[in-house]
Amino acid sequence: MAKQDTLQTIEIPRDLKNCHPLVLATREALEITKPNADGVLWTGQPGTLKIIAGRESLSRALRIMEGIVRACLSKGWSVESSETEAATCVIIGEDPVHVELYEQLERYEVEAIAKAKAQPWYRPEFRHRPTGRLTLHITDYLWDGLRSTWGDGKHQRLEKILGGFVEGLTLASHNRRLKRLERAATERAREEAKRIREETENRIKDEAERRQTLLSQCDGLKKAMEIRDLVRILAEKERAESGKYDRIAVMHWCDWALRFAESLDPFQNGYFDSLIAKHPADQGSELDFENKHG
Questions:
Q1: How much is the pTM?
Q2: Which of 71, 78, 221, 249 sits a CA distance of 20 to 30 A from 5?
Q3: Residues 231, 24: Cα–Cα separation, whole Å
């Protein structure tokens, strides 16, 4: 059995009686629209379907779209337009598929009078016109070489291959779902790598600052010991050379110097109280630091 024989048969209504509200709104909008320079009708009106066709093909295009809408609804899908422009969006789960129905154009040379053609400056002028051939196009980007267009051919009308188009909608939605999940997984991996990188950078920074603080405290302890030695020597000199220094002034200076030494001494300035007494289990580092880390 040929594949085409296994596809759903899409019935095309003979007229547009009792058609879907979107099809009706599209017909009403296009019927009052003037053809553009190529002779086709198109409306960007919100709440309408995306159909681009000449006036002679309009009825056929609308009936084809009505058949597609009915087929989609029978599958539990929904068809929507847009609040900002004309659009045909088939909602299949979380991965909608966007579609347009357009009439193919052909290029032709504008006839000019023979006298004009005889002039050396004459250049042929080309325009486009409708051909009567309709095409359905899935406008979303599809990966893996999936088919995105179905149209009239030399020996086959679009109406006969609409089952393949509906199947194409299913495949397109599935394709977009897979790519969406892949992108989500990639984004999660990227965010996790970023989190780990930032966490490591913060730990390196914290450890570098921790080490720098420790070295500063060591320097502070040395300076505190030197200050205390200086205070002791000054006190001894004051006692040995009575009258050389003002005793009250010496006492005030020594008191100030010892308080300053206390602020430098890690055993008295609170350094160990904050790092060990309050966080006894957080003193080691799991990072393997080299000299470049500080």
A1: 0.71
A2: 78
A3: 100
Amino acid identity of residue 17, one-letter, is K
Task: Report yes or no: 53 and 41 within 8 Å, Cβ to Cβ.
Answer: yes
Rounded Cα distance between 61 and 19, Å, is 13
Q: Are 98 and 80 in contact (CB under 8 A)?
A: no
pLDDT reported for residue 282: 59
Spatial contact of 57 and 152, defined as CB atoms under 8 Å apart = no
Q: Quickly list DSSP for 44-87.
A: --TTS--EEB-HHHHHHHHHHHHHHHHHHHHTT-EEE--SSS--
Cβ atoms of 254 and 235 within 8 Å: the answer is: yes
Query: Quick one: pLDDT band at residue 123, thresholds 50, 70, 90?
Result: confident
* DSSP one-letter code for 141: -
In the predicted structure, residue 203 carries a pLDDT above the cut 90: yes
Q: For residues 107 and 37, is the Cβ–Cβ distance under 8 A?
A: no
d(CA 182, CA 66): 34
- Reference 50, options 59, 38, 41; nearest CA is 41
CA atoms within 13 A on the CB side of 220: 20
- Token representation of residue 145: 């070489």
Nearest residue to 65 via CA among 30, 22, 103: 22
Contacts of residue 167, Cβ cutoff 8 Å, sequence gap at least 6: 7, 8
- Residues facing residue 90 across a β-bridge: 79, 97
Mean pLDDT across the stretch 232-253? Answer: 88
**Residue 168: partners with Cβ closer than 8 Å, 6 or more residues away:** 138, 146, 147, 148, 150
Mean pLDDT (the chain, rounded) = 89
CA atoms within 13 A on the CB side of 227: 19
